[in-house]
Amino acid sequence: MADVAIRQNSAAAPRNVRKRASLRTALKRKSTAAFLMTLPLIILIALLVLYPAFYSLHLATLNKSMQRFVGFGNFEFLFKRDTFWLVVKQSCIFAISAVIFKALIGFIVAHFVHNVPAKGQRKWRGMLLVPWVIPPAMSTLAWLWLFDPSYSAFNYTLSFFGIGPIPWTGDASWARFSVILVNIWYGAPFFMIMYLASLKSVPEQLYEAAAIDGANWWQRIWYVTLPMMRNIIAITTLFSLIVTFANFDIVRILTAGGPLDHTHIFATWAFRVGIEGSDIPLGASVSLFMVPILAVAAIFILRDVNKRGNEA
Amino acid sequence: MLMADVTLRKVFKRYDDVEAVRGIDLDIADHEFVVLVGPSGCGKSTTLRMIAGLEDITGGDIMIGGDVVNDVPPKDRDIAMVFQNYALYPHMTVAENMSFGLRLKHFPKAEINSRVTEAARMLDIVELVDRKPKQLSGGQRQRVAMGRAIVRNPKVFLFDEPLSNLDAKLRVQMRIEIKKVHQKVRTTTVYVTHDQVEAMTLADRVVVMNHGRIEQIGTPNELYHKPATRFVAGFIGSPAMNFMPCRLEDVAGKLHIRLTDRIAFPLPPIRAARYQSVARNEKLLLGLRPEHITEAKAHPEPGVETFDTVLDVTEPMGMETLIYFTLEGAQVCGRVNPNAGARDGGPLRLAVDLNNMHLLNEVTGVVI
Amino acid sequence: MTSTVVIDKAAPTRAIKYGSMSRDRTWALRWSYFFLTLFAIFSLVPPLYMVITSLKSSAEISAATNPWWIHHPTLENYIGLLTSNQFLTFFRNSAFVSIFVVTITMLISVPAAFALARMRFWGSATLATGVFLTYLIPDTLLFLPLFKMFALFGDFTGIQLINRWYVLLFIYPTLTVPFCTWIMIGYFASIPKELDEAAIIDGASWFQTLTRIFIPVAMPGIIAATIFAFTVSWAQFLYPLVFTTSTDQLVLPVGIVTTLIKGDVFNWGQIMTGALLGAAPPLIIYAFLMDYYIAGLTAGATKG
């Protein structure tokens, strides 16, 4: 064997202590470096996301000129206003119906794209994703022009079928429909892409086994596709609910909340009240009403993400 | 020439409440090729990673070239490592992969080029130097990983189960490559594997580990013919050694070993002498390798005893036939000549070569 | 369509046609193409209409002829906008803001993602989930308090940030950094640990490991995150609407919406041209880097 000069063969105890100490400093070095690397992120989130979120709670308790503390005064004021309840109702209807249709259309279109041979899928995907790529403010302008009361291209085409000019943004019900339509147009491609990716991950063999077991196309979707896609469906739906609920651009540009506040949602009304009305505390109160609903959705998402993590 | 021996003294490793390595003492000489072998979870990889510096040492010392390296970071230990999954940098060419360590240390370009070329030539990958890892096969990637280690010219090579990801045929090929490289480069090597065939074929000395401890250290021959514990005896060699419950008896003044009510064999003189002091009628295990259980021959040699049995299953392997039969509830494996008349379920007269027997204490697992 | 003969000792021989499977397939394909075309038309009509309108003169637009057809194509809208200082200012502001924000975002996200993905330190798991959750706090909740905060900051320090385009450099990262960090954590985490260890043994420091190994290997993720950050910055509407009011400080989306709509006179030709030019950068990136674009999307459920 080898002749090895063993140094420090005595004093085992001090050597152990030295080792443990240097171990700790080594760990600390790594920790400090890691902490420093995440520090900008932490500062950004703490200062510009978390703090404003809590600050809005404080703001909501002030009066219009922000001199006095009025406690729940702003909230009481809102509860008495019809417009407020209109906004609540509209926000919920808007978010839920838009998301349902986006998910449905996204799901259906994803299936069609999936059916097409792989080589052609790319160009279809490319075309169908365009609504999502265009900045929503820009595309909403295009819709505004398409819905124009005097020059609407849609009305022009419909007139050939004898269908009278539709007041896309002039009439309350039509305005709501238009807003939801544009939101669906903008958001469905996202669902399509997510579902398409998920569809591809379902093993072909499951479908073959189901076909052999005698399932028709509808049953295959119900018993094979949907269960395999449960997680992604849940996550995208919940995310979209949150985002659609908090949408601003489309309503602002298309209808600015009109006619007569019948398309206002939380974000646009908060803007009207807070910025245009120069009443920041009241606007903050309006915005805050989104929080409970967002929180509930967030809890569901967290639960699902954790469940997925545990299953994986 | 710098001494590149490796010494482990009472090395311990604890993760939270799990003790992965419990007191390893090991001396590896300069230029030696030592293989750490054992089942999954025995602590061999952990030990290797402690030598590399990828894991902290909970207790004990590790010395490389005479220097204690416990707190020395990996890059200052002058070691190189070949990983099971190759760990090649996917965005670099083969040449860049191999020269990465040297480039970090700002070696002169000419030196880097000459080292890379030499290593590539040694490993027969010269025409691959400009390719990226994803264009290479598994065996080629493993060569590049070895080239990366060779180029550094370290004191110690560390191999962490490098052949586990290759198919059987490639494994045999690469084993030979590794041995050839060691013959040329002669660097001290610590090699970890769970495959005892690799251990036996590559090592100067083998360290068999189990549950965080060393079971036995020895040359392949020593481990094969003189295992110290039941674990080593059963781990080394394939098919594994047979263990049959038995007792020692004195019959007519000679020491016999009794396997069943019907079967008892007299011990050969050397064995009889060695086992003289063992308590009779104590429960023991007879360890016998399959190649020492053969068909009965016309002229049995001294120390070879015969008995009859009925076979359960036979496995014709071409150059021999493996036979399986049951003795007192234990399955026993033997190797017979392909034309010895072995049939599934058929009777056969077998011979056991007691000159090569091992007697084990059933409780402690120690070979007597 | 193939047929085969089944040899069954009991039954008389007969031919079985396998035709129905592939006929089903063809019909499914035909329906697929049909509906896909419908949806493609639905998706592309608005942008197409933008193009059509942008090539029309105001005279033709107000003449209310067939809106889907260009009788006298003209580039006057394009020329008008591209030579308008105002429009060019919008474009320049948007470009500066987007490029700076992308840089800032990557400088914050990449090291943070590396630390969270690789270096296990106390609280790293909670921080990672926390980053994810902040993404759920919408801008429509934060815009009012942020406005007030920056107004107060201006009052206290005398540094006027409201109505300056560079105030957006502080605010946009709140939208881009969480998600980009999330994307990068995913990409970094997928790099096998042995690569780190090989680099350590080769003698690399943490920094060298990050710059010479991780970033090159995770480059697709970095590109996807960059594209995401750019697109989000470019398309932002609410924050700039709130924080910038003077014409020379506006970014493109706000500029087009507010200035081209002067009172009751809508110059739709110019508006559509402006909208098209405003949509151009993301569309161009999308055309050339579609796969990275989509990769950024599917790296985590996001706005939609």
What is this structure, in a nutshell?
The complex is a heterotrimer of chains A (312), B (368) and C (304). With 312 residues, chain A is an all-alpha fold.
Tell me about this structure:
- The complex is a heterotrimer of chains A (312), B (368) and C (304).
- Chain A is 76% helix and 0% strand.
- With 312 residues, chain A is mainly alpha-helical.
- Chain A has 2 domains: 11-59; 73-311, Orthogonal Bundle (MetI-like fold).
- In chain A, helix 3 packs antiparallel against helix 11, helix 9 runs antiparallel to helix 10 (217-228) and helix 13 packs antiparallel against helix 14 (280-288).
- Chain A is globular, with a radius of gyration of 28 Å.
- Chain A starts with 11 loop residues before the first helix and ends with a helix.
- With 368 residues, chain B is of the alpha+beta class.
- Chain B folds into 2 domains: 6-229, Rossmann fold; 242-361, Beta Barrel (OB fold (Dihydrolipoamide Acetyltransferase, E2P)), CATH 2.40.50.
- Chain B has 9 helices and 20 strands.
- Chain B has helices at residues 44-52, 94-104, 109-123, 138-151, 168-185, 196-202, 220-225, 230-235, 269-274; strands at residues 6-15, 18-28, 33-37, 59-64, 67-68, 79-82, 156-160, 188-193, 205-210, 213-218, 242-251, 254-258, 264-266, 284-288, 293-295, 304-316, 321-327, 330-336, 347-353, 358-361.
- The radius of gyration of chain B is 25 Å and the shape is elongated.
- Chain C folds into 2 domains: 3-54; 76-298, MetI-like (MetI-like fold, Orthogonal Bundle), CATH 1.10.3720.
- Chain C contains 15 helices and 4 strands.
- In chain C, strand 3 and strand 4 form a beta hairpin.
- Chain C is globular.
- The model of chain C is unreliable at 1-8 and 11-19 (pLDDT under 50).
- Chains A and C meet through helix 1, helix 3, helix 4, helix 5 and helix 6 of A and helix 1, helix 4, helix 5, helix 6 and helix 8 of C.
Count the strands of chain A? Answer: 0
Low-confidence stretches of chain C: 1-8, 11-19
Biggest sheet of chain A, open or closed, and with what strands and sense? none
Give the end-to-end Cα distance of chain A, rounded to a whole number of Å. 50 Å
